[in-house]
Amino acid sequence: MSVSVIIPCFNSETTIERAVNSVFNQTLKPSEVICVDDGSSDSTLSILRKLKEVSPLEISFLIILQENSGPSRARNNAVLRSSCEYIAFLDSDDVWHPQKLEVMFQFILKYDLDFLYHLYSPLPYDVNICLKNILLKKKKRYSFALKNFIATPTVFVKKNKFPGFPEHLSYCEDYCCWLMSTQRNFYFIDKPLANGFKKPIGDSGLSSNIYKMHKGFIDALLYLKEKKKISLVFFCLAYIFEYLKFPLRYFR
User: Fold this and answer.
1) Beta bridge partners of 189
2) How far is the CA of 72 from the CAs of 167, 170, 237, in angstroms?
3) Are 191 and 134 in contact, with CB atoms under 8 Å apart?
4) Cα 250 from chain centroid (whole Å)
5) How much of the chain is helix, strand and coil, in % rounded to 5?
6) Are 220 and 147 within 8 A, CB to CB?
7) Better-predicted residue by pLDDT, 65 or 179
């Protein structure tokens, strides 16, 4: 399968092996795995080198960035170095269901899609989840005025259609990236094939993280508007909804 799996890592010594093993255990193997050590100060790099030695797959590059510069630059760097037709992203503290790539590739080929995602769960995956009768659904572009429906570890995208993550944004760079594309409809699989081990907003839902996410969303909207990737109506709707939702996050 012509797909490069891209995993940015920063001080991920407690989670990176679990994430990489979830790629090794795929029922349909990718062509290459590209791990980017983003200036880690713990043992992440040593673990990656050991994984490369025992890997049943081709870990094509262990890109090492001397200084931490954020996941956007790490991912963009890896995409440029990738050699495959498709890109699949995974975060170092998340995992994939063993059939994730198999299911996604079937839908990519069947419907000739450039971009596909699936649902995400913050909880560990259920090995007994039923993957029969999977439905392909879609969200129209204007739906994203409400919120970002796409988690980065769920995305499967054609390399030549990938717009890149804005490296100047520290938050909501993924949301900005999806809307930088020319997609009118975003198709998705209605099953959670990527899973995490943390709360959706920050590691513990701290107020500081909530505020940073809020500010990051506004910055992303302003950038999209400046680049003429969203309409004025889209911008106004998203801006209003964000300010309505912002205070409610403190009561979660």
Assistant:
1) 118, 136
2) 5, 8, 26
3) yes
4) 25
5) 40, 20, 40
6) no
7) 179
79 Cβ neighbours under 8 A, 6+ residues apart: 4, 6, 87, 159, 162, 164
Q: What is the pLDDT of residues 130-170, one digit of tens each?
A: 777 888 999 999 999 999 999 999 999 999 999 999 999 98
Structure tokens that stand for 152 in this block: 């980065």
SS (H, E, C) 205-219: CCHHHHHHHHHHHHH
Count CA atoms within 13 Å of residue 131 on its CB side.
18
**Residue 175 tokens, joined:** 């949301």
Give the whole-angstrom CA distance, residue 85 versus residue 92: 22
Please give the C-alpha separations between residue 231 and each of 200, 219, 235, 236, 239, in angstroms, as whole numbers. 28, 15, 6, 9, 12
Tokens 């560990």 identify what position?
124
Determine the residue type at 19.
Answer: A
**Sign of the Cα pseudo-torsion (249, 184, 34, 26, in order):** positive
Instruction: State the amino acid at position 246 in one-letter form.
Output: F
Spatial distance between the Cα atoms of 71 and 237, rounded to a whole number of angstroms: 28
Burial class of residue 240, CB neighbours in 10 A (0-12, 13-18, 19+)? exposed
Q: What is the DSSP letter of 28?
A: S
The answer to whether 44 and 9 have CB atoms below 8 angstroms apart is: yes
3-class DSSP state of 128? coil
| Interatomic CA distance for residues 153 and 247, integer angstroms | 27
**Confidence at residue 200, expressed as pLDDT on a 0 to 100 scale:** 54
% of the chain beyond a pLDDT of 70:
93
DSSP single-letter state for residue 247: G
Q: What would the pLDDT profile of 58-79 be if each residue is shown by its tens digit?
A: 777 788 888 888 999 999 999 9
Average pLDDT over residues 127-132: 72
